[in-house]
């Protein structure tokens, strides 16, 4: 992220030399200009979540923030995002939650911020039995009830550790499989699963392409989003597009997407037993 921010001013100026801009749109953390404004064109920024919220959520030590100085929880990126938000002519927040946090954290006037929810393409979530059987063989899945997680496996915000603990409890009453889809270092998650003696009930896919991801949604019996923080929650929309039951934690923007017992089930973040019971209810319906 830091390298991108450092090279952005030069790239913008070079592009401006070829075609004058009417509006410049920045996507979240990107504004790293020594001047308040690089060009005369109005600046619009889309904010997905606040870096300061991530820091509050993860509570990293000062040492780890210094060691990871160029990362999201380091010492530089929060400053860049603050500058980007402060000097924007207009701000797009991807949820009411994100808008509220921008106002609360940086004192931005509410009328300067528009909420525009993320969207997805609803096409491509239906597959033939043959297509699904093929991907089941590729992923080495059996006929057990299938629970799905999608997200970076080593991102603490995504709450995979919470799901593993809930899954452990559910396995006492049902033999099921947890399919974990997403990039990132798997070692910590695997170690935790091994310590709880549930690793044999888990399949890690790593990164998958969009088509395979949609097939994973189509295959699952229930999708779970156990996040500790969500500025929006795109995977929830994807699971809903695949017409799958969705269970998620009551954090961030998730309550804007899910109305409890209407289009999904929302549980308290720290209610691992409650999460397990809801998961069990859906898996037993297979």
UniProtKB/TrEMBL annotation:
Question: Could you tell me which Gene3D superfamilies the record lists for this protein?
Answer: Glycogen Phosphorylase B
TM ranges are none
Name the InterPro entries for this protein. Answer: Glyco_trans_1, Glyco_trans_4-like_N
In its keyword annotation, does this UniProt entry include Transferase? yes
Molecular function terms from GO: glycosyltransferase activity
Which SUPFAM superfamilies does the annotation name? UDP-Glycosyltransferase/glycogen phosphorylase
Q: Does the keyword Kinase apply?
A: no
Record-level GO BP terms? lipopolysaccharide biosynthetic process
Q: Where is the Glycosyl transferase family domain?
A: 134-285
The UniProt keywords, alphabetically, are: Transferase
All residue ranges annotated as the Glycosyltransferase subfamily 4-like N-terminal domain in the record: 9-123
The protein's matches in PANTHER family, at most eight in alphabetical order, are given as:
GLYCOSYLTRANSFERASE WBBK-RELATED
Q: Which protein, by its recorded name, is this?
A: Glycosyl transferase family 1 domain-containing protein
């Amino acid at each position: 992220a830091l390298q991108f921010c450092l090279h952005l001013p030069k790239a913008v100026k070079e592009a401006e030399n070829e075609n004058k801009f009417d509006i410049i749109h920045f996507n979240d953390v990107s504004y790293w200009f020594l001047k308040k404004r690089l060009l005369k064109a109005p600046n619009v920024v889309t904010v997905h979540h606040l870096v300061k919220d991530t820091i509050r959520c993860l509570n990293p030590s000062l040492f780890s923030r210094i060691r990871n100085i160029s990362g999201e929880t380091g010492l530089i990126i929060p400053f860049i995002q603050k500058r980007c938000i402060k000097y924007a002519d207009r701000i797009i927040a991807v949820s009411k939650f994100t808008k509220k946090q921008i106002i609360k954290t940086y004192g931005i006037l509410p009328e300067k911020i528009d909420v525009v929810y993320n969207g997805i393409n609803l096409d491509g979530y239906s597959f033939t039995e043959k297509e699904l059987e093929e991907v089941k063989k590729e992923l080495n899945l059996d006929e057990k009830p299938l629970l799905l997680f999608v997200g970076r496996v080593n991102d603490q915000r995504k709450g995979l550790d919470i799901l593993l603990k809930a899954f452990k409890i559910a396995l006492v009453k049902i033999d099921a499989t947890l399919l974990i889809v997403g990039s990132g270092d798997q070692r910590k998650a695997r170690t935790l699963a091994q310590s709880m003696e549930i690793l044999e009930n888990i399949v890690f896919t790593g990164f998958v392409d969009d088509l395979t991801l949609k097939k994973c949604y189509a295959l699952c019996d229930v999708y779970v989003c156990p996040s500790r923080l969500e500025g929006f929650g795109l995977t929830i929309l994807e699971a809903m597009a695949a017409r799958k039951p969705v269970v998620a934690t009551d954090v961030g923007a998730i309550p804007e997407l899910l109305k409890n017992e209407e289009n999904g089930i929302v549980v308290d973040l720290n209610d691992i037993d409650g999460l397990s019971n809801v998961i069990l209810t859906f898996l037993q319906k297979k």
